[in-house]
Amino acid sequence: NSAYEGIITAGSLAAYLESHPDAGVVDTALFARSTPPPGITADPAFLDRAFSLKKGELSSLVETAEGYAIISATAIQEPQIPELSTVRVQAEADYKYEKAAEKAAAIANQLIDDFKKEGASYKDLVEGKGLSVQNSGPLVKNPGDHQSSFPQALVQSAFGLSPADPVASEPGRSGQDYYVYWFNDRKAPETAISAEDKERYKGLLQQFKQRQIVDAWLANRQSQAKISIHSSLENF
To answer: CA-to-CA distance for 188 and 144, rounded, in angstroms?
Structure first.
């Protein structure tokens, strides 16, 4: 706040720096939002404010995860379309990737439609498209126990499938890959219980059953008895 007031009083950042040469200033060359240079935070709030300034404009205080900043836009250059010769390799790679992703998504969606319409075996439909079936093996919800090649990000969705609704309604995506997956089997989790825990659970179950018996006996007695509660005792 003190620095901001000092800049306003001096009339410009340059004038303020003449009397405050030790102020922590980072001077950059032109940079894009996606590639902030060293010394400049990539905090979205900072970049949003920086790229909203006009040439010569000074920002107010900008709070970031790394502290506070004041931004002065000394120059602005509009985005430029590079010559194709300089980006041809990357452009071709991006184009191929985009088309491959579109084709993979189309095949995955078609597989799901075929599964639901034709009633054929999953294996036959998959192999008919030149693909192969992979078994995920047992899946668990706890990320720390995940040992399958099936993406952890899709496990929650997979647990929503059942024998009555065995196929995911849309392809799952993880990174650059699309997944069509279906329900195969479900097993109850197996958790080892120590002898000590077994005795403790046995005791808790016995107490629960005893309370049920007593409550049932009291309910039966109340149903056969005439009960009166004095008004002076209602709050006790």
So the answer is: 18
Q: Which residues contact 125 (CB under 8 A, 6 or more apart)?
A: 111, 114, 115, 118
Sign, CA torsion 114/119/122/125: negative
Q: What is the pLDDT of residues 193-229, one digit of tens each?
A: 778 888 888 888 888 888 888 888 887 777 777 766 6
- 3-state class (DSSP) for residue 188: coil
Q: Residue 147's closest CA among 137, 161, 159?
A: 137
Q: What is the pLDDT of residues 143-200, one digit of tens each?
A: 777 778 888 888 888 888 888 888 888 888 887 788 888 888 887 766 667 788 888 8
CA distance 68 to 61: 6
CA-to-CA distance for 120 and 114, rounded, in angstroms? 8
Average pLDDT, stretch 17-21? Answer: 82
Report how far residue 209's alpha carbon sits from residue 201's, in angstroms, rounded to the nearest whole number. Answer: 12
Give, in order, the Cα–Cα distances in Å from 49 to each of 17, 58, 232: 22, 10, 70
Helices marked H in 59-194: 84-118, 122-128, 155-158
What's the whole-model pTM score? 0.44
Cβ proximity of 139 and 80 under 8 Å: no
Q: What is the pLDDT of residues 99-138, one digit of tens each?
A: 988 888 888 888 888 887 766 677 777 877 788 788 888 8
Q: Compute and round to an integer the Cα radius of gyration of the chain.
A: 34
Alpha helices in 131-194 (DSSP H): 155-158
